[in-house]
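Justification of computing resources. Each target in the renewal requires a structure prediction run like the one illustrated here; the chain below, 216 residues long, is used simply to show the kind of job we budget for.
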Amino acid sequence: MKFFADTAEIADIRELASTSLLDGVTTNPSLIAKSGRDFKEVTREICAAVDGPVSAEVIALNHKTMMKEADILRRIADNVCIKVPLTIDGLKTCKALTSDGTMVNVTLCFSANQALLAAKAGASFISPFVGRQDDVGQDGMALIADIRRIYDNYDFATEILVASVRHPIHVHEAALIGADVITAPPSVIRQLVEHPLTDKGIAGFLGDWAQTVQTI
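Resulting structure tokens:
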């Protein structure tokens, strides 16, 4: 499974990238606004910090303007992945962009039928939002399982990018289902390494070692 960071904070991205465990980054207008920085500048810095795809989202809602914005965004760096909403115009834009070799992340997916359409449009990634599904009483991970089965039925190459990840359990369940990618806030990614028994074991080892009065 690939791990993407869902953030526009360059310090967090660089820290995670230094572990060699970070495979990409996803951003959106809300995250860019939260960073308080220039959109193109921060996107350029993120692309330089990671080798994998960096999703940069268009703002337009019509196909013609989406294409114009996508052309600007993909000139920022070779690893920019254009992010489009799951609408008719978004799917039309996805098809046009992927047909000329541009990576596309189709976002705001909330149904298996939507995911099927995105795959038919040639999406590089489909982003189902599991946390937002859970928020309204639906089963976000059941959606991931449905998409996985549909994509496997037809050998679609579109990668399932589990988005709106809220906690480590989402990551665990996505991995069991066979999702290709998860994108999560840096805080959630850091939680994956934590376990009280690991901390207890380290404390015990250090205590025993201190009694030997040795150094390495």
